[in-house]
Design brief:
- By secondary structure, the protein is mostly beta strands.
- It is built from five helices and 18 strands.
- Strands 3-4-5-6-7-8-9-10-11-12-13-14-15-16-17-18 form a 16-stranded antiparallel beta barrel.
- The longest helix has 26 residues, at 27-52.
């Protein structure tokens, strides 16, 4: 029985009851009953009109949604939680546990809500005008809720688009793959050091199934949630450039772009492969307060990704040149070149997927550049990460266990040797690394992820 018919039956019952009690009830009550019935019938008509309009609600691959019947308005509501348990091991000579020396313990275990995020995406006015807003509720520390994404994207037709707001610039491919679609429990150290993260800007580009290209004008790498007047105290912490330009191009020479949205392949998955490259330049004039210090930053990358029939593989190289004028060594300019390399492979047996990854960071340590490291800092930092995923329900419910082993001293990553735009967050963050003056820091990570 439809809603409208049911309401008519209910209304008739109410009227019949009112008639049977007419002699005993005053006229005011009979009028109230008639008013209630009229209101119920009007409500039924409005609901019937809404259903005829074709309004929709439910859940799809993007999460829960509500929308208009014509598809011009739609809101997707989703998010995810990553709950991680860490076991950190360092050399006992470096980590003696004595508070007076400032050294941490040689063994540190503990749980952490690494990420808890709400995501809102959809379209307004027409399917061509899309939007996204993402709020980070927790990144492992109390009171750290913050805006991650706030962008709009308009389809100009024939593959062309324009995008604005706060979003990830088109640079490192590993960063462009979503947090929930990674192979290991965390992105590589290379990605952390050289990442573009999120920026505020405007992007113009082209995209189809085989080719994508974008050019963005922004406030520079890692400039999210900053006012345009931001003037950091040191070049090494420059959060906003005067301007930055980012160009990236990708060519899918085999398979579909949707296949490569993550770093895994079903056992019977189709083959897909792509090659990408990007370059970014930003200029930060007078970035040090009360002094005349200019910072120019040029960085570039090339990457290759392939997956199919259970196999996945990815490799990326990144380099940069940082020029600070005047530099750290008196009036001399500081001109340093740093590099990174990451390579990973995995194979999926139905729900079980072992993997291995190499990460190398090669920092410039030359007094002529105005940048030198202490004796306890390694300029070349190498990692080996290996582990396995178990997919209960794809990425929506996934358990990851991995071991990340740094062969070299890890405390040097925290300062990044003067790299002005890297996050520097690989130490003491969601990776489980705390930093060590000795070689061989090891982290075990056990993570359960669920999406909604």
């Amino acid at each position: 029985m439809s809603q409208t018919k049911a309401l008519f039956v209910l209304a008739g019952s109410v009227l019949a009851f009112g008639a049977s009690a007419q002699a005993a009830e005053p006229a005011a009550n009979r009028d109230e009953i008639r008013a209630i019935v009229a209101e119920m019938l009007a409500d039924a008509d409005s609901r019937s009109s809404l259903l005829q309009g074709g309004g929709t609600a439910g859940r799809d691959e993007k999460g829960f949604f509500i929308g208009s019947g014509d598809g011009n308005y739609k809101l997707n509501i989703g998010g995810f939680v990553q709950n991680t348990y860490f076991l950190n091991f360092r050399d006992d000579e470096n980590a003696d546990g004595n508070p007076g020396t400032g050294q941490p313990n040689e063994f540190e275990p503990g749980f952490q809500i690494k990420r808890a995020r709400l995501e809102f995406t959809g379209n307004v006015i027409s399917p061509d005008f899309k939007f996204g807003v993402t709020e980070e509720l927790s990144n492992g520390a109390a009171g750290t809720a913050s805006l991650k994404d706030a962008w709009w994207d308009y389809n100009l037709g024939n593959g062309w688009y324009i995008k604005g707001g706060q979003f990830r610039l088109g640079f490192l491919r590993e960063e462009l793959i979503g947090d929930t679609y990674q192979l290991a429990s965390e992105r590589s150290a290379v990605n952390s050091v050289f990442t573009q993260d999120r920026s505020q800007g405007l992007e113009f580009g082209y995209r189809d199934e085989q080719f994508r290209a974008s050019l963005a004008l922004s406030d520079g790498f890692n400039s999210d949630n900053t006012p345009f007047t931001t003037a950091p105290a040191l070049p090494s912490t420059a959060a906003e450039a005067d301007w930055g330009l980012t160009f990236r191009a990708e060519w899918n020479f085999m398979g579909s772009t949707k296949t490569l949205k993550d770093f895994t392949s079903m056992a019977d998955g189709e083959w897909a492969a792509m090659v990408g490259a990007a370059v970014h330049f930003q200029q930060s004039a007078n970035t040090q307060l009360n002094t005349d210090v200019d910072t120019d930053y040029l960085t570039y990358t090339i990457d290759f990704q392939i997956e199919g029939a259970g196999f996945n593989g990815f490799i990326a190289f990144v380099g940069n040149n940082t020029e600070i004028s005047p530099g750290n060594a008196g009036s001399n300019d500081s001109d340093a070149d740093d590099y990174g390399l990451v390579a990973q492979i995995g194979y999926r047996f139905d729900k079980f997927e072992p993997f291995v990854r190499y990460e190398g960071i090669y920092l410039d340590n030359d007094a002529d550049t105005g940048r030198t490291f202490a004796a306890t800092q390694d300029e070349n930092i190498n990692f080996l990460t290996f582990g396995a995923n178990y997919y209960f329900a794809g990425h929506a419910a996934k358990f990851t266990a991995d071991v990340s082993w740094c062969f070299d001293q890890t405390n040097g990553i925290a300062g990044l040797g003067g790299i002005p735009v890297g996050t520097g967050s690989y130490i003491g963050s969601s990776t489980g690394f705390i930093g060590s003056n000795e070689d061989d820091e090891v982290v075990l990570r056990f993570q359960f992820q669920f999406m909604f």
